[in-house]
Amino acid sequence: MRKKSFQDRYEKVKKELNPPKKGPPEFSHMAWRASADMLAGIIVGTGLGLAFDYYMGTAHWGLIIGFLLGSTAGMLNVYKSLCKAGFGFGFETLKK
Fold first, then answer.
1. Residue 81 to residue 30: CA distance in whole angstroms
2. Predicted confidence (pLDDT) at residue 82 exceeds the cutoff of 60
3. What is the rounded distance in angstroms from the CA atom of residue 19 to the CA atom of residue 26?
4. How many CB atoms sit inside 10 A of residue 4's CB?
């Protein structure tokens, strides 16, 4: 009888210390990561385009091209992170 009560207490503490993992926080983390990757690409591309315009004296062509390249880089980063999580499409995923 003593062993059974110890086993019951052990199982109760084990459940409290190791709660079952839930899906939504992982998706929330992925959403934050994707938005940060996209925003970083746009900011860096636009910043480099503005710097190019400033030093070369061009009329906003660097800004436009930098924004487009930054957006493309951001989308590529989001795609790579989704592939690593197993949500990619195409020939193969980059999951490691």
1. 8
2. yes
3. 15
4. 8
